């Protein structure tokens, strides 16, 4: 049997590990769309890096092919639809001064973006 303090500590840990629990519906949808777009954003980040290296190393043919792959990612209809929805949600979540209306939304979105960044590497 788990002592009372250990059970409370475990419960607190679970609450701390789930930042999306108290966010608004718009914030929750924003995070879900970010998760769906994560592979595309990761690929774009890698392509940007490869394009830069190709340009610095004067590999023009490689840079052109990489830019084409990047453009193809931007033309994907599903990606475009999700990114447009993100823009709408961002406007709803924002307070107009560069910050979120609900601090919980900002925490959850920031957490998701950090996690995605480190998974991409």
Detail the topology: elements first, then pairings.
Elements: H1 4-17, H2 25-56, H3 60-75, H4 77-93, H5 103-120
Helix pairs in contact: 2-3, 2-4, 2-5
Summarize this structure as a short list of keywords or feature phrases.
single chain; elongated; 121 residues; mainly alpha
**Helix content class:** over 70%
- Which stretches of 5+ consecutive residues score pLDDT under 50? 11-20
- Give average pLDDT, whole number: 84
- General shape: elongated
Series of secondary-structure elements, N-terminal to C-terminal? HHHHH
| Strand proportion | under 5%
When the domains are counted, the total is 1
Span of the ends, CA to CA: 41 Å
Class based on secondary structure composition and strand pairing: mainly alpha
Question: Given the structure, what is the number of helices?
Answer: 5
Number of strands: 0
Largest sheet: none
Q: How big is the Rg?
A: 19 Å
Short description:
The protein has 121 residues and is mostly helical. The chain is built from 5 helices and no strands. It has one domain (4-120).
